[in-house]
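Bench notes, afternoon.
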Amino acid sequence: MGPHDIRDAIVDFVRTWVEKTGIAVLRLVRWLKLAPSKFYDWRRRYGKINLHNGWIPRDRWLEDWEREAILRFHAEKPNRGIPPDHLHDAGWRPGGGQPQHGLPGTQGCRPAQALESGQHGKGQGF
C-alpha cells in the first residue's frame, strides 16, 4: 500500500462519514488533526499517483547493454550503424574517458587542435 493509497483511504473515510452522519467536512477533517488545505489538496489529487521532481527514466534512453551492443557492432563493422560519436554527444563515455572525435585526420586531437591545424573544412561548403 503506497502513500497515495493511504491518502485516498483518508479521503474515502471522510466522504463516508460525512454522508452517514451529516457532520461538516471541515469539522471531521479538524477532528482527524489534518490541515484543511492538506485534505482539500488530497481530495483534488484523489486517484492519482504521487509525482515527484526526480529524474524519471525515459523510453528513449539507452540501457547499458544497448550501448555496449551498439559499440560492439560499430567495432565489428565500422562503416555501418550509428557511429559511437553520437553516443558521446549524448554525454556517455566508455570508461569515463574523453570523447573520440570523428573528423578525418583528427584522431587523438582536441577539437581546438583540429581548428588550428586547418583540418576543419571551414569554407568548403556543405
